[in-house]
């Protein structure tokens, strides 16, 4: 892209990921895969019960950053040289090749080895892209006073400080979208999760609550991200209907936090 140096339409989301990945996204050039070591990959981050030991984000404009633990850079670099498309991030063989150098760095730091692979398609939305939906009665939740419908759980980790909106029927929350506290740009970035009780799907409720969370952060001039499995077509349709557009593909090799072991 000739205008790669121009800021994207999601400068806040870019900055957010730069803070989380410990490398300025503005430094990346399309077509390059940058491997950067960071001690952040050896620490559990706020609101997450695991360590993101390797975090690879391949942005939609072809910028690509792999954040790895100290000491894993050379080994990971040897693997990523053969990768040419973001689709490779969803290939199980790639994760298997990346695991040995990452695990070696974790062992050196006296941490558990990676035990899980997380693959996400990430989408983003800003105030100008947002399309509101108003199906059902939607309201903000700040506590557990409204019980969930059968098959749905309240995002208790988001109370009282996170952003939670629900569609309610018969005194129960039947569809919920939420953004928890991450410790980074909490008033400007919403990283959205959504769930709808089985008996209330296909009514537009998920679109309503997701758009409500985006609208909440947009009132402060913020932006939102939405992650889901690349083969979760229903979730992608929900996000796109609200105004989300493709932002990046993500591959994470996670390790358990030893402090949380019982």
List the helices and strands and how they pair.
Elements: H1 11-21, E1 33-37, E2 50-59, E3 64-68, H2 73-80, H3 92-108, E4 116-125, E5 137-140, E6 163-169, E7 172-179, E8 189-196, H4 205-218, E9 223-228, H5 233-242, E10 245-256
Parallel strand pairs: 1-3, 8-9
Antiparallel strand pairs: 2-3, 2-10, 4-9, 4-10, 5-6, 6-7, 7-8
Task: Describe it.
There is one protein chain. Strands 1-3-2-10-4-9-8-7-6-5 form a ten-stranded mixed beta sheet. It is α+β, with helices and mostly antiparallel strands. It has helices spanning 11-21, 73-80, 92-108, 205-218, 233-242, and strands spanning 33-37, 50-59, 64-68, 116-125, 137-140, 163-169, 172-179, 189-196, 223-228, 245-256. It folds into two domains: 11-121 and 249-260, no CATH class; 137-243, Aminopeptidase. Residues 1-7 have low confidence and may be disordered. Helices cover 23% and strands 29% of the residues. 39% of the residues are buried.
Mean pLDDT: 92
Approximate shape: globular
The sequence of SSEs as H and E is: HEEEHHEEEEEHEHE
What's the oligomerization state? single chain
| Whole-angstrom Rg | 19 Å
Using DSSP, what is the number of strands? 10
Across the major sheet, the strand order is 1-3-2-10-4-9-8-7-6-5
Q: Hey, roughly how much beta strand do the residues contain? A: 25-35%
Structural class designation: alpha+beta
- Helix content, binned percent: 10-25%
Alpha-carbon distance between the termini?
A: 50 Å
């Amino acid at each position: 892209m000739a205008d790669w140096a121009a800021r994207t339409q999601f400068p806040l989301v870019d900055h957010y990921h730069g803070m989380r990945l410990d490398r300025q996204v503005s430094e990346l050039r399309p077509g390059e895969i940058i491997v950067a070591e960071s001690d952040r990959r050896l620490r559990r981050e706020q609101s997450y019960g695991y360590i993101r030991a390797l975090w690879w984000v391949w942005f939609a404009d072809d910028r690509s950053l792999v954040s790895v633990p100290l000491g894993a850079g050379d080994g990971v670099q040897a693997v990523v040289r053969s990768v040419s498309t973001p689709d490779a991030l969803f290939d199980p063989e790639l994760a298997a090749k990346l695991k040995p150098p990452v695990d070696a760095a974790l062992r050196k730091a006296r941490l558990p080895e990676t035990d899980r692979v997380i693959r996400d398609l990430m989408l983003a939305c800003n105030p100008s892209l947002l399309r509101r939906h108003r199906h059902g009665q939607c309201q903000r939740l700040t506590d557990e006073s409204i019980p969930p419908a059968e098959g749905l759980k309240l995002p208790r980790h988001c109370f009282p400080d996170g952003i939670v909106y629900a569609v309610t029927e018969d005194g129960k929350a039947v569809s919920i979208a939420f953004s928890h506290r991450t410790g980074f740009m909490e008033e400007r970035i919403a990283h959205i999760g959504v769930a709808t009780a089985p008996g209330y799907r296909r009514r537009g409720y998920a679109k309503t609550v997701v758009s409500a969370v985006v609208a909440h952060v947009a009132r402060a001039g913020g932006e939102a991200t939405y992650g889901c499995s690349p083969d979760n077509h229903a979730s992608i349709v929900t996000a796109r209907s609200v105004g989300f557009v493709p932002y990046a593909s993500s591959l994470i090799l996670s390790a358990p936090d030893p402090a949380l072991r019982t």
